[in-house]
TrEMBL record, chains A, B, C, D:
Residues of the Prephenate dehydratase domain: 8-186
Native organism: Micromonospora rosaria
Sites annotated Essential for prephenate dehydratase activity: 179
Catalytic activity, as annotated: prephenate + H(+) = 3-phenylpyruvate + CO2 + H2O
Keyword vocabulary terms for this entry: Amino-acid biosynthesis, Aromatic amino acid biosynthesis, Lyase, Phenylalanine biosynthesis
Protein name: Prephenate dehydratase
One Pfam family from the record: PDT
Entry EC no(s): 4.2.1.51
GO cellular component, one term: cytoplasm
An example Gene Ontology molecular-function term: prephenate dehydratase activity
């Protein structure tokens, strides 16, 4: 039922990855069920089918970029909406069975993205260890727990879950690295505006129209809507055919964002609304990400004034 | 009373000019009173004070350009609105007292703009006549009627009124020359949309904002509103300070023009609505002046569809 | 010969008008001949034919707006260029034959624009006098000198020339009113850039292209060229067909203005260059008219850097 | 030495993947050495260090989207340029040791992206087989060759290399799926323009400037440069900080693209040129990807005309 808080949560598994850790920051999830899914599509399908109320999946990483499969799933298939974003520092740790010393580590299991992000640390502290690619951070922790490998690069929650000792933490070359996750539900009324919100859209443009992307940006700019992110995802039809996934500042309930949305709806081949939700502020937020007040002439009250003026004109007053 | 058809008309005099001739094309004026005014401000002040219901004044001429005083009066002072436009061919005739022959004409009275527009004809047919500047086409006809001058360049109605014989017609170098007049009333409900309407605006922009005029044009372009004319008129504050008088295609009751108007209201220092009224089609209308259908995505039904879609999004459907 | 300073000057007559007064502010004109012309076309034709080296004609007035005939003459016909602008305060005086007192004035000769601009003063000081329309400020002074009228509203130089006593000065309702004049020559090398220049253009756009005017403004905006004035002048072909006369900040020798000019040349039906010349600064210049430094990335050295970079790319360095 | 054709090639390994297959379509590579690299960074570093002359790496896939690591490597680090693009159909085959029948297949090794793209085929023909994730298409083929798995989803070249029998081909759900590869070299003169070229750029914008991305698109649009692709890649500084990787139509030697590049250089925080190279046309190219003639006014000859005109203006002719 719309309005009922979600109680059955699913997240991108396996257990012990950053996705589970991100889900634990959502208060409602502490009191609900939390089930790992084998993949992003599986997590989202669980929500679509009604098996789960909400899914926690990664959207983008400040080092690795967009998580294509999540964007593709949101842009295509049965519609879903984002109701919350979670920004989580990517704090890699080196986990090993209790008793292992750093000096004795000869093999390290790691997801390739994880080992790439910890290259500097590995060169410095484990120059002679063999790094073995595995398919997830959770799988790395499992491999260390079973003794298949001497150690694992994993999330703190992965070490905890598998009762690994943390031999070192903050392994990442970029100490400020974060991952942005989305909590996704079936369509329903969006959370109320907070004054500092994000709206995510999937926009399909007519490819035979020159300057079509420019006109999308103009629809936003004329209403003072700030575009904070744009991702191109292939539509699968042909090389060179993209759907654009946009993050804008503002909430669907804001007048100017509403007008911009209507403009996109009119000029684009298709627009899919992927949710309005509060911006997650975190310690190392970039300065440019501060909430931006509506530009001159574009606040809700400016809109109300202009609408009242137009109504007077139409009545001939 | 709003809605009551006007019965008391005033026009830019004196009698016997093109303004009177233009007023005679307005059906209601045939049954009402028609009073000449000495100047455009006087004509408009008669409407403002309630002495007259409507004034017929010139807006622009296809040869001489904008009639500055009319634009200035509409942009400043007590508000008025245009309810109708009249396009009239500028058909200059040579009038003289009956019995005069072309060969005997030695002096011709003419308003300087009239003699400029008939330069070719005068050189060909009256190369030796002295052309005397007078202050209006009506004054020229009067001068010929009183015998002060042998002939006058004037409007057909001027020859009729002063019982002058027409020695020659179609004197103008530009046979397609026309003047555009406006019928102006006190503010009231605009005439209903016809599908081929014009809206006139006076727009004040913030001069300390670089690109302010560009953003005005973008507000229109994003809504597919076509700008057919732009005139700069000095505000009188200082050299380089202008108010822009714009003609746009569309009616204030159209959704997209309404949205564009609201946009201008928000981004401009001030906007004055000067009326929505049917476009006057005439024989020699330029091809480009054909009624332009709303661009893709910008018809009223596209707007209605987009508004309904937004409402569904906001309700979470 | 190009480069030879002009010695034979012509100006919009008759003698004793503001045009003559403006010409007297041009140093070279003090040592040359100064001949009045009967009209703007006549003045410019004298330059075209080689009879005169330069003509001084009015461009616009801060109250009355553009002088259409000057713009039309510059945009059409044999090309000419502006080499200098002169801004002159419009200081109307009341001239009368010596011995006349203000109290005895019963009739005042005035050009209609002059009497309009002095309405307030006339109501206050000469509420009972008859104001008679004449065809120029110079003709008004002549009429007062011959005794046809008791007094004349005219330029200071008109009173001097006709030996009139000045009964009152600063008659204008707008004490800061100015007129802007152009000194016009046959095409030749423009005066050197000063860092605070104006460039005037006549731009013909394709009327069948929607948004053609917007694309003109974008060509300028992308190069950071500021548009200080835009005038629509009818081309005479048909109502709704205009040539736009633009004033831009900058000099044809500036890199970014050069690039913008090339852009206009490519996208417009036609562009006529009407001169680059130093901006005339005067006492009451509006604040916004201060010389504007080139926007970030658009100075000549930014252009030079970008051109050098491109050359390196093309050589594969 | 610049100009010397490359002879030592490296490609994203292992052997038997689509990258090797793509490299085999490059004529020069047939006569040179072809060495697999363990990763994209390793391949590109081999070129940077001079060990190899050129590297063949994937850029994007019509199903999976951009290959982030390639874009990141090109946008950061020691500069490299693309000299050629190769578009290769993604034709997955099912390889198994000779003698294996489809009915006997119980386990299939596949890279997760490969199994995702063959989901439909797997459901239909091997509904009961276990699909095991491995780290590359080449690793899958190896696993089938060693007997670790019964079969592998791999590239045709992978089956050939490991002497696998092809039990089925065209396994992909999207029969038109292609991957786009780049041949990358150290900076040098670009290949000559062909009239149908692509230019790739990495653009860094000032994040504190509202509408910065819009102004990038305007720099392109004003010069009629078509943007065919835009990818956002994180800069690693912070979430929300992106570098944009753009594909444009045209060649750095084209005048209008040169002017657009200079414009980007001036308005952006930084621009890195990543090469101009002939567009690869292939059988199923989308209609919209046809070579687009320069828009009216933007051909090289239009530019030459405008430059000559400007030069005449500056000389005063």
């Amino acid at each position: 039922m719309p309005g009922t808080p979600p109680t059955r949560f699913v997240y991108l598994g396996p257990e012990g990855t950053f996705s589970e850790q991100a889900l634990r920051t959502v208060p409602a999830a502490e009191h609900g069920t939390r089930t790992p899914a084998r993949s992003v599509p599986e997590a989202l399908d669980a929500v679509r089918s009604g098996e789960a109320d909400a899914a926690l999946v990664p959207l983008e990483n400040s080092i690795g970029g967009a998580v294509g499969v999540t964007l593709d799933e949101l842009a295509e298939g049965e519609p879903l909406v984002i109701t919350r974003e979670v920004i989580l520092p990517v704090d890699f740790v080196l986990g090993a069975r209790p008793g292992t010393t750093l000096a004795s580590v000869r093999s390290v299991a790691a997801h390739p993205q994880a080992s790439t992000q910890c290259r500097q640390w590995l060169r410095t502290y484990l120059p002679d260890a063999v790094v073995v690619d595995v398919l997830s951070n959770g799988a790395a922790a499992t491999g260390a727990a079973t003794g298949e490998y001497d150690a694992a690069i994993c999330a703190p929650i992965g070490a905890t879950r598998h009762r690994l000792a943390v031999l070192a933490d903050k392994l990442g070359d970029h100490p400020d690295a974060v991952t942005r996750f989305a909590l996704v539900s079936r369509p329903g009324p969006p959370p109320p505006p907070t004054g500092d919100d994000v709206t995510t859209l999937a926009v399909y443009i007519a490819h035979d129209r020159v300057g079509a992307l420019l006109s999308v940006l103009m629809e936003l700019a004329v209403r003072g809507v700030n575009l904070t992110r744009i991702e191109s995802r292939p539509t699968g039809e042909a090389l060179g055919r993209y759907v654009f996934v946009l993050d804008c500042t503002g909430h669907v309930a804001d007048v100017r964002l509403g007008e911009a949305l209507q403009g996109l709806r009119r000029v684009c081949a298709d627009v899919r609304f992927l949710g309005s939700y509060p911006r997650h502020r975190w310690a190392t937020s970039a300065a440019g990400d501060r909430p931006v007040p509506a530009p001159v002439g574009l606040s809700d009250s400016d809109y109300a004034d202009a609408a009242a003026w137009l109504a007077r004109l139409r009545r001939g007053e």
